[in-house]
Structures are given as C-alpha cells and as structure tokens.
Amino acid sequence: MNEVHIPVLLSDVLQLLRPKESETYLDLTAGYGGHADKILEVTRNYKGAVLNDRDQNAIDFLEAKYQEEKPKLVHDDFYSTALRLVESEKKFDMILADFGVSSPQLDIAERGFSFAKEARLDMRMNGEQELDAWTVVNKWSEGKLADIFERYAEERPGRAKMLAREICRKRPINTTTELAELIRSKSPYSHTHPATKIFQALRIVVNDELGIIEQTLPLLPKLLNPGGRVAIISFHSLEDRLVKEFFKDESSKGIESTLEVITKKPVVADESEIVNNPRARSAKLRVAKRR
Prior knowledge:
By secondary structure, the protein is an alpha/beta fold. The protein has 13 helices and 7 strands. The chain has helices at residues 10-17, 34-43, 56-65, 78-87, 103-107, 133-139, 142-152, 157-170, 176-185, 196-206, 209-216, 237-251, 271-276; strands at 25-27, 49-53, 72-75, 92-98, 224-234, 259-261, 284-290.
C-alpha cells in the first residue's frame, strides 16, 4: 500500500524509543501507520500493539493495511482510549503520541482543515462530533473569538479583537477560502499565509486538543512498564509547553518520580528532513522513560 503520510522525526523516534523484539507498543495517534510500521517491523509483536486514532478514515486505512498480522485498532480520542487502558491495567513498553494533523486530513478538501482548498468550514478529526469550525466562526460571540485568537493563535490582543470583529460583521462565512480571504484582506504581507495561525486556533478549539492533552499526560506513566519509553511529538508551542512541564514535574519528585527525561531539549527536524517534509519544520519531540 502506498505511503499516504510521511511520519515526522521518524529516525529520531526510533533512535530514542529503541524498540526491541517482542516489546509491546501503544500508538495513541496512529494515523496512517507511518511510525507504527517501522516500530512493528522491529518488535514483530502485532498482538501486543494497540493503534488508536479518532479519525475513522485512518482506522479504515489501517484495517486494510494490516491484513495478516493485526494489531488491535481502536477508534476514539486518545484520552478516552488511554483511560480505558489504565482502567483495564494494561501496560506497554513503548507509547507514542503525535499531536499533528496528518497529510490526508489536510489533503481531503471536504475535511475543511486547509485554507488552500475550498470546503465547508469543518475541521473535525472525528466526523461524528457535533461541534465544527462553521459553528465556532458563525455562532460564537465576538469576545469568545477574540479570546481564541489571542490564546491559541497567539495573536496580539488588538489584532485578535479586530479579526473577531470583522468575522462577526461578515457572517455567515461558510467556506475555508471565504475565511482565509477575509483574514488575508486584514493582514500585512508575510511569507506565511496570515490565516495559518487562525485556522490552527480553530482546529485546536473544535477538537479540544489542549484539553485532551492535559487529561492524557497524567495517565501515561500508569501505562508504562518499568523501563518503558514514551515519545510525544507536538507542533504548537502551547502543546509542547504542556509536555515539557509534565515531564519536568514527573521527573523532579525525588523517590516518587515516575519518569526520567531522556531529551533535555526537544528534538527538531534537520534541514534535509524539512526539505522532504515541510510540515516537520514545527515538530518537537520529547521522550521520557518510566522509572
């Protein structure tokens, strides 16, 4: 099956997780299996692997991909899956979470993640949930929109309020390209499209990405065997800050510490990887080990 998504920081993940034959593996954001493929090639323990994703398209792809030796596939958000696994007292030798949006999600126009292609404002990773980007843009208050843009797009307060005001004036805004053009018309020239951060902020809100990360992080040590490793890839400064602070807190409790931080600084992509996979530019990898 052709690779539809290039996994970021793959060689670094393999080097730091150090998979070994027969080890167990939990991928909380398996996507289209880019990282999982390479790890399972080493462990050969498909029955001891759980691959989770909240995107049904990804699960369908993995169902078709793993025809003979099959890992367990789970369709849910990663917090719900992690919680169930903790409750059932499951433990793993390796855990991976990649908080980025997969290339197929961006490439399928009707998913509404990208302003490069016209589509209804959607941005739901799980198409079964009610809240979508259209509702946020067209129904939420001006003050709430400004808060989103300031907090999650990290826009200056004045600009966040201005964009929120303009969006409310132009409602209804139905498509990705309508919203992107409105933002562009109210923005100074820059090398990156001015709608990039706003779309990112909307995606974070629609999918409650930061809330789910905050809920999931405390569960990870409970899911690791002694000596088990957890690797987390983030693409936004707010995500990375949550991971950094959690790892720091868990490693500094003295005899009660549950984790040992392996990466003192986040691992980032080198120039050769960025050339081949531009989305790796903002990726940051942090790894810790269960004491």
